[in-house]
Amino acid sequence: MGAAVPFGLRVDDALAARMQQGLVEVESLLLETVDSEESLLTEASQHLVTAGGKRFRPMLVLLAAQFGDPSASGVIPSAVVVELTHLATLYHDDVMDEAPLRRGQASANSRWTNTVAILTGDYLFARASDLLADLGTDAVRIQARTFARLVRGQIQETVGVPGDGDPLKHYLQVVADKTASLIATSGQFGAMMAGAPSSVVDTLTSACEKIGVAFQLSDDILDVASESDQSGKTPGTDLREGIRTLPMLHVLAGDDPADARLRELLSGPIPDDGDHAEALALLRAHPAMARAKADTRRWAEDARAELLTLPDVPARDALASLCDYVVSRTG
To answer: Per its Swiss-Prot or TrEMBL entry, what cofactor is needed (predicted)?
Structure first.
C-alpha cells in the first residue's frame, strides 16, 4: 500500500501517483484560469488559490474519474470548476461573516475591501462558467443547479428556522445545500467526464453527498471538541456566535432540568468569555456530543454502503476510507 495522501485515504502506489499527477495538473490550470489582465483581480484571485487549501473537491473528482477513463479531457477542467466554485463562495462568506482571516492569513475583504472580495468571487464564478462551456450543456446545467442549492443553503441559514419549523431538519437541509451539494457534484463530474456508466455516476453522486454531510457534521463537532493546538482553529466559534450546530440542537431539543443552565447559555450568542468557557465545558461533557458523533457515523456508513455497490477498483477502497476518516476525526 502506498504513499501518504490527505484525508486518510487508503491508496496503492499506482493510484497515489495518478492522484498526485492529477492534482498537479489541477493546480496549473487553476492558476492559469484566474490570471487576468487586471493586476488587482489576478492578485485578489490568487490570494486564496495559493493559500494552501487541501483541494478536497478536486480530489473527489479525480477519484470518481477512476471508474471510467481518468485521462478523459473533461476531468481536469471539471475539477478546476468545482474548486473555483468553492473558492468563490469563501470570498462571499468572508464578506457576510466579516471574517478577518482565512486559512491563516488576512481575508480578501480585510486586505482590500468588501467590494473587491465580492467582485473577485464573482470573477471566479465567471471563470468556472467559461471552463464549463467546453464541457457540454449537461455539465452547465448540473453546475447551475448546484449553484442554486449553494445560494438556497446560505439563504436558509441566514433567515433561520421558520416559526413552525423543525430546527434539526432545517440544519440538515442547510448542510446538504450549502456544503454537501458541491461535494456531490464533484463525484458526479468526475465519473461523468470519465465516461463511467450512468448507474455508477448516480451512485457516486449520492454517496459523495452523504460524505459531504458527514464532513460538515464532523467539522461542527470538532468546533466544540477540539483544542486550538489540535485543529488550528479557535474552539467554540459557533458557540460564541450563536450558530446552532448539531450538538447544540440535541441539547435544545431536550427538557432535562439538569440542562437548564446550558440551554440558557445556548439561547443566543455568547460574547462573555466566562459564559463561553462555561458553555463549552458543559457541552463537551453532555451526551449530545455522543449523539452527534453517532449521527455522523450513520451518514458515513450510509455513504460506505452505497460505495460498496460500485465496481471493485482501488478508488472504491480510497473513497470508503474517507468514511473512516470522517468518523475518526470526531474522536
So the answer is: Mg(2+)
Three-class SS state of 68: coil
Per the DSSP assignment, residues forming a β-bridge with 105 are 102
Instruction: Please report the DSSP string for 134-161 in residue order.
Output: TT-HHHHHHHHHHHHHHHHHHHHHHH-S
- What is the distance between the alpha carbons of residues 331 and 314, in angstroms, rounded to a whole number? 27
**Please, what are the domains in the chain?**
6-318 (1.10.600.10)
What does the angle CA 159 – CA 256 – CA 290 come to, to the nearest 5 degrees? 75
* Residue 48 near residue 30, CB atoms below 8 Å: no
Q: Are 298 and 211 in contact (CB under 8 A)?
A: no
- Reading the block at residue 133, the C-alpha cell is 462551456
**Tell me: the pLDDT tens digits for 160-216?**
898 888 999 999 999 999 999 999 999 999 999 999 999 999 999 999 999 999 999
Model pLDDT, residue 101: 54
Please name every residue paired with 101 in a beta bridge, in sequence order, or none if there are none.
106
Q: Which three cell numbers stand for residue 147?
A: 449553484
91, pLDDT greater than 90: no
**List of residues 6+ apart from 292 with CB closer than 8 A:** 217, 220, 221, 246, 247, 250, 330
Q: For the chain, what is the radius of gyration of the CA atoms? A: 20
Classified as helix, coil or strand, 92 is: helix
User: Beta strand pairing status for 105-106 and 101-102?
Assistant: antiparallel
C-alpha cell at 290: 455522543
Query: Distance from first CA to last CA of the chain, Å, rounded?
Result: 25
